Amino acid sequence: MFKGSMVALVTPMHDDGSIDKKALEDLVEWHIESKTDAIIVAGTTGESATLNHDEQSDLIARVVKQVAKRIPVIAGTGTNATQTTLTLSENAKRAGADACLIVTPYYNKPTQNGLYQHYKTIAEKIALPVILYNVPGRTSCDMLPETVERLSKIKNIIGIKEATGKVERTKEILSRCDKTFAVYSGDDATALDLMQQGARGVISVTANIAPLKMHEMCQAALNGNRMLAEKINAELMLLHTRLFLESNPIPAKWALHAMGKISLGIRLPLLPLDSKYHHEVKEAMQNAGVK
């Protein structure tokens, strides 16, 4: 259903932390022109943790309306409370989103069966495709392959964003689940390796900065053109790694600011990129051919 380079879109903000709606519109158009395959709104990279519920729902509705079905829009609606996740997912459905990306509940530390019941409850009540999102480095909650296998049998749970960066983990999920269940990389640095194992694409931070190249790399990988995919990926590798010199989306927002696309606005407790990393991120941008 969804494949290729799917950008985990930053939420552009003014210096006071309010959402910059004009910059958001411009970013969306730039991604469509750059052949980005789908847009994820209000995910981790979009600072969902500091968006209030009204802002999150408005952000999703704005992007859905602007995109107007030109490419898929996937809404980040995961929280650490099942009922809140249901409410946000219902709002995304009303706004016209094509799917929901739902992160594992953070802080609570649910059991594997608790995770199963959380997602099962949501999937049975929301008439939208659901993509699971496992990022234990952020959430302190690791959804194990056997739980993913159980969840994959629920009709509208269509895939998982697997962000451990572990190729063996992805291989196990692919071997356990039906071919119709999609696996997406949530780690740019290992995305090509995962696609070569059978993943259908990447939900990408790097695509914020180099959307066309990420699209071209994913297309080459999915079409079996290994040599071209590896060539493009090599050009992007410094960017893959250096966009995590500080917590995401700090470096990505700084890079977009350096490109003249957004202001430096970011919400506390995050701060703009420390100046000691400016040269390293700039070097990675240049290495990727980004101006």
TrEMBL record:
Transmembrane feature ranges: none
Alphabetized Gene3D superfamilies for the sequence: Aldolase class I
EC number(s) stated in the UniProt entry for this protein: 4.3.3.7
GO molecular function: 4-hydroxy-tetrahydrodipicolinate synthase activity
Amino acids binding pyruvate: T45, I203
One cellular-component annotation, GO: cytosol
UniProt-listed HAMAP family: DapA (MF_00418)
Function according to Swiss-Prot or TrEMBL: Catalyzes the condensation of (S)-aspartate-beta-semialdehyde [(S)-ASA] and pyruvate to 4-hydroxy-tetrahydrodipicolinate (HTPA).
UniProt xrefs under NCBIfam families: dapA (TIGR00674)
Name by which UniProt lists this protein: 4-hydroxy-tetrahydrodipicolinate synthase
Source species: Aquicella lusitana
Taxonomic path: Bacteria, Pseudomonadati, Pseudomonadota, Gammaproteobacteria, Legionellales
Gene: dapA
